[in-house]
Amino acid sequence: MTVDRLLPTPEAHDLLDLTTELATRELAGKVDDFEARGEFPRDVLRTLGRSGLLGLPYPEDVGGAAQPYEVYVQVLEILAGTWLGIAEAVSVHTLSCFPVAEFGTGKQRAMLPEMVGGELLGAYALSEPHGGSDAAGLTTKAVADGDDFLVTGTKAWITHAGQADFYNIFCRTGGPGPRGISCLLADAGTPGLMPQSPERLMGLRSSAPAQIVLEDARIPRDRLVGEENQGFTIAMRALDAGRLGIAACAVGLAQSAVDYATAYAKEREQFGKPIAQFQGIGFMLADMATGVSAARALLLNAARLKDAGRPFSIEAAKAKLFATDMAMKVTTDAVQVLGGAGYVADHPVERWFREAKVLQIVEGTNQIQRLVIARSMTG
Amino acid sequence: MNIVVLVKQVPDSGAERTLSADFSVDRASSSNVINEMDEYAIEEALKIKEAHGGEVTVLTVGPAGATDSIRKALSMGPDKAVHVQDDALHGSCAVATSKVLAAALRTLSPDLILSGAESTDGRVQVVPHMLAELLGVAALTGARKLTVDGSQLTVERQTDEGYEVVTAATPAIVSVWDTINEPRYPSFKGIMAAKKKPVQALTLGDLGISGDEVGFAGATSQVLEFNKRPARTGGAKVVDEGNGGEQLVSYLASEKFV
């Protein structure tokens, strides 16, 4: 179904048209093979980069497209509806440019055109094996050694580990707690920075994360992004924006599931008529479609608050929470509408069902989103 | 190098297509796109410009609606466009279209003209040859590879059996098949930039061509009737009663596959 979108500018319509063309011609035919093989689609991302899709929110003087988040999240939505792995990669890459774009030194910012243009792929290394949700407790340690930092520790669940050209490494440079953390920008070739084998995932297999082991990884001091011990602030600011990205992925994924289930229900006949004509199915489809529309409305509202420079963190948390729980429910129901066929990998709802689950976990589990929202209410 | 790419807007070959009541191509009821093969010509022009410098101009003969395809073509990277548009052109045959294109090309004096080897609507493949004749330039048609060395052009000309190597000096026209390259997607910046690129509008009067030389009035060929392609019929069925292998081989032999 074509979504009727109110967009701020004519060029936003052009951008979404371009995204749809790329999704149809470049992504749709490849997703199944890459998912089956668990292969990372680096060349597909290069194509998207050359089309300008990897740095949409960043200013034009660093190679971005200066698009508001309101538009950027709808690009992600369209990509996710075809290939979640690609949308997630675009979201993570865009996130990984954020620390340098917002807090970087002049020398660091000189790298931005290549980062934002997608020639260099980025990764964002915050989580650790013993603490994903408790980011302020991270233990990867950086000690000063002349003009360098020597970094030791283990990062976990790192999207693009082993594929990325640069890594934002969040590590402890000061005392315990959130005020002792710094952000370092490391090149892929940094000695002692060792990406491990990709995890074997339930879904999202074309973009599987991996651990990164750091053993006295030598990162020059001029790669410190922002002030020393300012890292936690940078990480949280980036994650607020990242939550919008994941909410957008959920909306796109669920929209595709609704569309697919609806088309199937109109074709599939039982007891002499299409199953869509049975109210039991029709009401399911109606609830699914309503859930998608509601999630999109929350997402766009949070994105517009961000674009207006207003506080948006809590609304982004609500959008992430609602959209990803909705996507899990909608993809579960889409499998149900297809019945046995929905459980078979020949239909994409099987993949979407597996993929939806990860969205409830990444960029802050939905329990953390609830924690953030509750704290904002109860202090 | 001054390169002109011929770009035609055609009905989407992936959708249902038909002719209008006057037997011209029906453009109203179908979504119109850049002729697929022309995208390869645009890509080749851009690659030559990137390697050797110069300017790339898109030339289109077509109705007002062709503007969409011109902007799309420009969003891939060409510098400017020329759009020949005149109501009298409706119903023009290949000979008349070539006459118009040749007149427009004379105003641009290109070193190299690039086009798709055929359009997905007419599929007659004659326009590049006719243009070469009218302009007195070399025709290197059906290229799967093009090498530019100064003013010397070398083309691998695709044939059913393989390819021929043909060369010519500029000015020349080269028509290309979809084996020659992989066309780029427009970039978002390219789409924005395309809105500001100059598109020169020309009429038949500007080119010194009178209305009765073109359109249905000047057509050298006429469509009398048309029929839909017949539905596919079932092929021969081989039932294996001990001699299935022989039957298969004799069928393949009758079709000259073995």
UniProtKB/TrEMBL annotation, chain A:
Domain spans labelled Acyl-CoA dehydrogenase/oxidase C-terminal: 229-377
Molecular-function GO term, any one: acyl-CoA dehydrogenase activity
Ranges for domain Acyl-CoA dehydrogenase/oxidase N-terminal: 9-119
Every Acyl-CoA oxidase/dehydrogenase middle domain range: 123-216
Alphabetical keyword list: FAD, Flavoprotein, Oxidoreductase
SUPFAM superfamilies in the record: Acyl-CoA dehydrogenase C-terminal domain-like, Acyl-CoA dehydrogenase NM domain-like
Cofactor(s) required for function per UniProt: FAD
Family according to the record: Belongs to the acyl-CoA dehydrogenase family.
Full protein name: Acyl-CoA dehydrogenase
Species per Swiss-Prot/TrEMBL record: Actinoplanes philippinensis
UniProtKB/TrEMBL annotation, chain B:
UniProt-recorded Gene Ontology molecular function terms: electron transfer activity
Function: The electron transfer flavoprotein serves as a specific electron acceptor for other dehydrogenases. It transfers the electrons to the main respiratory chain via ETF-ubiquinone oxidoreductase (ETF dehydrogenase).
Keywords, alphabetical: Electron transport, Transport
Cofactor: FAD; AMP
Lineage: Bacteria, Bacillati, Actinomycetota, Actinomycetes, Micromonosporales
Transferase in keyword set: no
Name listed for the protein in its UniProt record: Electron transfer flavoprotein subunit beta
Highest taxon listed in the record's lineage: Bacteria
InterPro entries: ET-Flavoprotein_bsu_CS (IPR000049), ETF_a/b_N (IPR014730), ETF_b (IPR012255), ETF_beta_N (IPR033948), Rossmann-like_a/b/a_fold (IPR014729)
One CC-aspect GO term: cytosol
Stated family: Belongs to the ETF beta-subunit/FixA family.
Electron transfer flavoprotein alpha/beta-subunit N-terminal domain boundaries: 22-211
Subunit structure: Heterodimer of an alpha and a beta subunit.
